[in-house]
User: Which sequence fits this backbone?
């Protein structure tokens, strides 16, 4: 077994003072009004489902959600625009 040595991590502390402009440029937040819920139509049974959205998981997301009526899984693709609006595409998971 080979022993590996890693360089020591350096903590620069909080000595550096950031301006509001530097913080906004480094960590853009938009207006803070990202959508957190939406209504979508099940691609199998056509029923409307209310789904929770998580803007903290990134601006481009893809995951499986089950229909609340027929229980069949569908693939949800969620993309957040710069103003916090969610664009949602729902397709059958067997496609």
Assistant:
């Amino acid at each position: 077994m080979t022993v590996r040595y890693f360089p020591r991590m350096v903590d620069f502390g909080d000595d550096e003072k950031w301006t509001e402009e530097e913080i906004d440029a480094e960590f853009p937040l938009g207006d803070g009004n990202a959508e957190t819920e939406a209504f979508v139509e099940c691609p199998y049974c056509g029923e409307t489902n209310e789904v929770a959205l998580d803007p903290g998981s990134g601006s481009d997301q893809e995951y499986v959600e089950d229909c609340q009526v027929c229980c069949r899984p569908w693939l949800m693709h969620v993309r957040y625009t710069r103003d916090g609006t969610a664009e949602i595409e729902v397709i059958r998971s067997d496609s």
Remarks:
- Residues 42 and 67 are 6 Å apart (CA to CA).
- The longest helix spans residues 20-26.
- Strands lie at 37-41, 48-52, 60-66, 73-80, 86-92.
